[in-house]
Amino acid sequence: MTTPFTPRQWSSRFAFLMAAIGSAVGLGNVWRFPYLAGENGGGAFILIYAATTLAIALPILISEIMLGRMGKQSPINAMRALIARHKAARIWMLIGWGGVAGAFIVLSYYSVIGGWALKYIELALTGAFSGETEAAAANHFTNFVADSGALMIWQTLFLALTVGIVAAGVTGGIERAVVLLMPLLFILLAAMAIYATTMPGFGAAMKFMFAFDFSEVTPDTVLAAIGQGFFSVSIALGAMMTYGAYLDEDVSIGMSAIVIALADTVVAVLAGIAIFPLVFSYGLEPSSGPGLTFITLPIAFGTIGNGAVIGGAFFILLSVAAVTSAISLLEPIVAWIEEGVRLSRKWLAVIVGAAAWVAGLGTVFSFNRWADFHPMARFGVMEKMTVFDVLDFTTANLIMPTVGLLIALFAGWVLSGPVVEAALGAGGKAWFPWWRFALRFIAPLGVVSIFAANVLM
Ligand code: PFF
After folding, report:
1. Cβ(292) – ligand 1 distance below 6 Å
2. What gap in Å lies between CA 411 and CA 430, rounded to an integer?
3. 388: which of 13, 200, 363, 406 fits an S-S bond (Cβ 3.0–4.6 Å)?
4. Is the pTM of this model over 0.85?
5. Ligand 1 and 325: CB distance under 6 A
6. Domains of the chain
7. What is the pLDDT of residues 417-432, one digit of tens each?
């Protein structure tokens, strides 16, 4: 069979790893993990996170990359091929459809927040935070998000970067970008973390993040850890499946997945080491999400010496992390359409990007015109949510766990032991039975418990 499009294959294991780590390392690592750890028992949370990631997210990550490499196409067509080959039921197509639909939704809102990170590079470098008080920083941010036109400009810029990289192809675009950007991200992060050790609030920050406090650990802590692990290692949105489709047969998926999950966790912990000393040195309140990133940190950047440089470095780091995740959300969609339509990748990337831009307006308006619009007002848990909150909630709590569960069940129960052993090249490997056990029993149980908790709460 001749492929109608340029070949899609990583040119090295390193390129694949950089792309996959680029996908995993994103906003989730920088603005969610450190705070979750601080609030949920510090070292105890980090330990629980490591355990749930090892037992649940990692086995699913291995499976997702494996399904991609077995199917060798976009998630939708890979699942179609696997279902035919293994005479499985059509319902498993949900893995492909759910993943690609979820990727589109996440891309739509991720681009808006990614745009904020870009805007804040400009603000930091031009010294806009200098001498800023808490009230001024909060005002700055509130005024920015109240301006839908400004949000649209930065969302457009962020999507244009993402589209440009994906349009240039797997090797010519994604690979070229990640082998450059990921090392840059590591250098910036390491430099910031080292600098943070010299700050007066370093001790307090380390206590906040690492002190073992088992009294803070509840069943909710475990659920939060599972959920964070899912989002953070990028499973269940077709991204890793697509990247797996471009992977050589002789690369060990087991080893690669361990490297990806480990790098992702190291970055999350380092982000905390880099961020919280700033927060504690200036007597600020640790928080998470937009508040931490776009209000609390700018206050610190406005006070420290060389704040423009350090703040600029931080927002460049954040933007790099977001762009390399966004390309992994756009690629599965472009790959899928590319397989069925005679249009160049360039045009497809632009068209899908434009569609994500339009869908992203729901998120843009959630912070201004539609701030009081609650689309799910009739649904208990979603009652008070804006469009953005609903999109975030449904992808993180519904689509990702469902697709993740289906991946675990498909790879664990539908595909036979010998088939997956061959697909992973895991013949005689000691970890193989452990992986299969975790996949068949522990991962499904973990996911079902997230569901049960969400429905019951
Ligand atoms: N892992 C990314 C983060 O931590 O921000 C988010 C993400 C990207 C999730 C790509 C899923 C995905 F397919």
Report:
1. no
2. 18
3. 363
4. yes
5. yes
6. 13-456 (1.10.4160)
7. 999 999 999 988 999 9
